[in-house]
Specification:
About 40% of the residues lie in helices and about 20% in strands. The protein is α/β, with parallel strands linked by helices. The protein has a seven-stranded mixed beta sheet, sandwiched between helices. Helix 3 crosses helix 4.
Length: about 260
């Protein structure tokens, strides 16, 4: 995509947007903390297991911190395409120094940087896959599958759309009860808020299509493990036993983060 017309890059690489988002970080952490915890708890590790996971589109690292907190011997690779988000993330990740590193990776391409190990024990993502057009959602899931160690899990916390207007209206109505200001805000967006909203919704797709991409990639144990209105955590496991056509890229476990 031409970077000059890519609203997604313009928004996520805008110092102003990233700083104004950082100012609301506490509120966002409060609202989402339990969801990131569930995402972490779904990983099949014991509390003292040492493993390396990738947080795709990690932003300032909220999902990665939840996993690092739950598993004190785990290490994280956080990927994002926004140097501005990464800069704020470096501040917010300070408590985990030595247990994480950031890698710049633009998920709109299928060229994974060499700094991401070829084999990963687990992959998570939070509120970023919906920024990808459908062919990249599908492509990414296949790329994640190819890098997971046998038995490794991929879990995605994200927003979905519904093809059924009755369902979409029920989601909106119910969310408005929790936040009575939401309906007013929807009708009175500033041009920047409108641009952010349009960027947020432009590639939202229904849940079944995303689960089908996971299945096509070869995942097993696919389920929607948590759901509240239009927010979901879904994922699956790369089967532990592979047919020869699906043999891992390299043997063994993921490389250390260091
Ligand atoms: C809504 S934020 C979510 C950040 C974080 N995962 C969280 O849940 O707090 C979306 C993130 O996706 C990143 N992102 C958007 N498009 C991307 C792309 N093409 N490649 C890599 N990261 C991207 C943005 O920079 C941003 O950090």
């Amino acid at each position: 995509m031409d970077p000059s017309t890519d609203t997604n890059a313009a928004i996520w690489k805008s110092e102003e947007h990233v700083r104004s988002r950082a100012a609301r970080a506490e509120e966002r952490e409060r609202e989402n903390a339990e969801r990131w915890r569930v995402l972490g708890e779904l990983l099949p590790f014991g509390e003292q297991d040492a493993f390396t996971f990738l947080d795709l589109g990690a932003g300032t690292g909220s999902a990665a911190r939840a996993v690092l907190d739950l598993y004190p011997r785990s290490t994280a690779i956080l990927s994002d395409f926004s140097p501005q988000m990464i800069a704020v993330g470096e501040e917010e990740m300070a408590a985990f120094a030595g247990r994480y590193r950031y890698v710049e990776f633009d998920m709109s391409t299928s060229t994974w940087p060499l700094e991401i190990p070829a084999v990963l024990d687990a992959v998570v993502s939070s509120m970023c896959i919906h920024h990808m057009p459908d062919h990249r959602k599908e492509g990414l899931f296949a790329e994640v599958f190819a890098r997971l160690a046998p038995g490794g899990w991929y879990l995605n916390y994200d927003a979905v759309s519904s093809a059924d207007p009755v369902v979409a209206a029920a989601w909106e109505r119910t969310a408005d009860r929790r936040d009575p200001e939401a309906a007013r805000k929807r009708l009175h967006r500033t041009p920047e808020e409108l641009a952010r909203h349009e960027n947020h919704v432009r590639y939202l797709i229904p849940l079944p299509q995303q689960l089908a991409y996971l299945a096509a990639a070869g995942f097993a144990g696919i389920d929607v493990y948590w759901k509240h209105l239009d927010d979901v955590i879904y994922g699956g496991q790369r089967p532990a036993q592979q047919s020869s056509a699906l043999a891992p890229i390299t043997g063994g476990q993921a490389a250390s983060v260091a």
